C-alpha cells in the first residue's frame, strides 16, 4: 500500500509515521509513505496557497489552482490514488470505512487549512470523510487518524493477526461491539479482583464470558451500536434488557 498526504505542514507527519506500529510497518515494507508540500505547486515568490473568499467573510480559503495541479501531478505517476478530502459534510469515518480503505492500493489524503477550500477543489475527491463533529485547525490530524486505523489492518502490521478481530467495532468476530474488559497481574489490586472465570483456564467459559461482557459494555456505554451489532436472538433480548436497565426511558 502507498499512503500519501498533501499539506502545507508536511513535517507534522514525521514523528507519527515513524513511531510504534506505523513506524514498524513502514520499516518492514508493509506500506510506503510520502508527505507532499502543497507550496511546491505554487508559482509566486510567497508560495501562496490561500486567498480571500468571494462575497466577503472571515478568514482565508485554500486556492483551487495549487490543489488541482498537485493532485494531478501526484496521480500521474504510479497507480491512480484514491483521493480523500476531509470536510464536515463527509462520510463519518469508522472501522468499516477503515477496513474498506485497507484494500486500496494507494491513498492520497488532502489536508485542508484556514477556513476551508475553494469548493471547486472537491471535484478532485474520490471520497469525503469526517472524523467527528468538531472543528480542527487542519486536516493533518484526521489524516493521521485514518492512516493509523488503516495500517493496523494490513496483514503483518500487528504481529498477532487476531488482534484486529477482537478489537472494538471490528466487523469480524467482534460483531461490531465494544471490546470486553481485560485484566493483567496482579490478580487483586486495592480489593478489586480479576473475574474468577479469567483465572479458570477454561477457554470455553472465558470465551462465553467475554462475549457477554462485550454486550454488557456496549449496552452501557454505546447502546447506539446494538442495532447494527451481529447478535443472536437470545443476545438481542439480553441486550434490550440491559439497555432498559442502564438507560431508563422516562415515562410520558
From TrEMBL:
Q: Which InterPro entries match?
A: Alpha/beta_knot_MTases (IPR029028), tRNA_m1G_MeTrfase_C_sf (IPR023148), tRNA_m1G_MeTrfase_TrmD (IPR002649), tRNA_m1G_MTases_N (IPR029026), tRNA_MeTrfase_TRMD/TRM10 (IPR016009)
Cited Gene3D superfamilies: 3.40.1280.10, tRNA(m1g37)methyltransferase, domain 2 (1.10.1270.20)
Record-stated family: Belongs to the RNA methyltransferase TrmD family.
tRNA methyltransferase TRMD/TRM10-type domain: which residues?
1-227
What are the record keywords, sorted?
Answer: Cytoplasm, Methyltransferase, S-adenosyl-L-methionine, Transferase, tRNA processing
PANTHER family attached to this UniProt entry: TRNA (GUANINE-N(1)-)-METHYLTRANSFERASE (PTHR46417:SF1)
The entry marks the following residues as binding S-adenosyl-L-methionine, namely 112, 131-136
Q: Quote the subcellular location field of this record.
A: Cytoplasm
Name assigned to this protein = tRNA (guanine-N(1)-)-methyltransferase
The principal location of this protein is cytoplasm
Task: Give the enzyme's EC designation.
Answer: 2.1.1.228
* A Gene Ontology molecular function term of the record: tRNA (guanine(37)-N1)-methyltransferase activity
Q: How does it assemble?
A: Homodimer.
Q: Name one GO biological process term.
A: tRNA N1-guanine methylation
Q: What does the UniProt record say this protein does?
A: Specifically methylates guanosine-37 in various tRNAs.
Q: Could you tell me what reaction this enzyme catalyses?
A: guanosine(37) in tRNA + S-adenosyl-L-methionine = N(1)-methylguanosine(37) in tRNA + S-adenosyl-L-homocysteine + H(+)
- What do the Gene Ontology cellular component annotations say? cytosol
Amino acid at each position: 500500500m502507498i499512503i500519501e498526504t498533501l499539506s502545507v505542514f508536511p513535517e507534522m507527519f514525521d514523528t507519527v509515521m515513524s513511531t510504534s506500529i506505523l513506524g514498524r510497518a513502514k520499516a518492514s515494507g508493509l506500506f510506503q509513505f510520502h508527505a507532499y508540500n502543497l507550496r511546491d505547486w505554487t508559482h509566486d515568490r510567497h508560495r501562496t496557497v490561500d486567498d480571500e473568499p468571494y462575497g466577503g467573510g472571515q478568514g482565508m480559503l485554500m486556492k483551487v489552482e495549487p490543489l488541482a495541479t498537485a493532485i494531478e501531478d501526484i496521480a500521474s505517476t504510479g497507480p491512480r490514488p484514491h483521493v480523500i478530502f476531509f470536510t464536515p459534510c463527509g462520510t463519518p469515518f469508522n472501522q468499516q470505512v477503515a477496513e474498506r480503505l485497507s484494500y486500496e492500493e494507494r491513498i492520497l489524503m488532502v489536508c485542508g487549512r484556514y477556513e476551508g477550500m475553494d469548493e471547486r477543489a472537491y471535484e478532485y475527491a474520490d471520497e469525503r470523510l469526517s472524523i467527528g463533529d468538531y472543528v480542527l485547525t487542519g486536516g493533518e490530524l484526521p489524516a493521521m487518524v485514518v492512516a493509523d486505523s488503516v495500517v493496523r489492518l494490513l496483514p503483518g502490521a500487528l504481529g498477532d493477526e487476531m488482534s484486529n478481530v477482537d478489537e472494538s467495532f471490528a466487523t469480524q468476530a467482534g460483531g461490531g461491539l465494544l471490546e470486553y474488559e481485560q485484566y493483567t497481574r496482579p490478580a487483586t489490586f486495592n480489593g478489586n479482583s480479576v473475574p474468577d472465570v479469567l483465572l479458570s483456564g477454561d477457554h470455553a467459559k472465558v470465551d462465553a464470558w467475554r462475549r457477554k461482557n462485550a454486550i454488557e459494555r456496549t449496552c452501557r456505554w454505546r447502546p447506539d451500536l446494538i442495532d447494527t451489532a451481529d447478535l443472536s436472538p437470545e443476545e438481542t433480548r439480553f441486550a434490550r434488557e440491559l439497555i432498559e436497565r442502564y438507560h431508563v426511558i422516562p415515562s410520558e
